[in-house]
Amino acid sequence: MQSPLFGFTETETQDRYALQNPQLLRVSLSGHEDVLARKGTMVAYQGIIEFDAEYRTPGQQRARAHTGEGLDLMRCSGQGTVYLANLAQYVHVVDVDHTGLTVDSSYVLALDSALNSEVIAVDSQFGISGSGKYNLQITGRGKVALMTSGQPLMLQVTPDKYVNADADAIVAWSSSLRVQMQAQTHSAGVFRRRGNTGEGWELNFLGQGYALVQPSELLPPQNAVIGQGMRAQYGMGQHGAHAQNQGNVWTNR
To answer: Which CATH number among 3.30.70.120, 3.40.50.2020, 2.60.200.40, 3.60.160.10 corresponds to the domain 13-243?
Structure first.
């Protein structure tokens, strides 16, 4: 058999996390350290690999029920390689160190089992009850695989150069940064997109660190129902995940 498809063969590497292409992640398992992956993202595997639903502690269950934030994970263990992807989202591997990483759980594809995560709220500077956006703070040392819609932009934040980002486009940031939620107006219009500009809430980052922004204001279409039209495939409409998870500070809680 001959085909140009043979140009897309497996990339050999000794790295535990390795991108096979911009949208497909390979994770090597040696039997010593498991990886936690988003449920349903395994596209292939080789070797002897077991997949088990990850247990949530009572505290994690309460946090998920209260905030809507959290990860539906499966534990991948054994010896071999597992290939992970989610609807052709771009995949990026990040090393988490002592500074920690804050991320919207919808953008997490996989992480080392040794890492810890807890739900935190980004408080609104206006003090409006319920307007905080909940995220995951990941701490420890290890790797996290993130997803973005398109190629992202990594912005450096310094004491002399702060960054403002659309709350629907921000993916992750250094946990050491100070974060405020704000809008351009204090009027009732903040509950809508700003006037006719199409802009809504934004996050203001100050301190020393980095902020990762994607070129899209939609979350990855998790669990979209394939076969219900293009809108459903991209997470929109009553059959798509976008109907339940619109990815803004009011509905993604």
So the answer is: 3.60.160.10
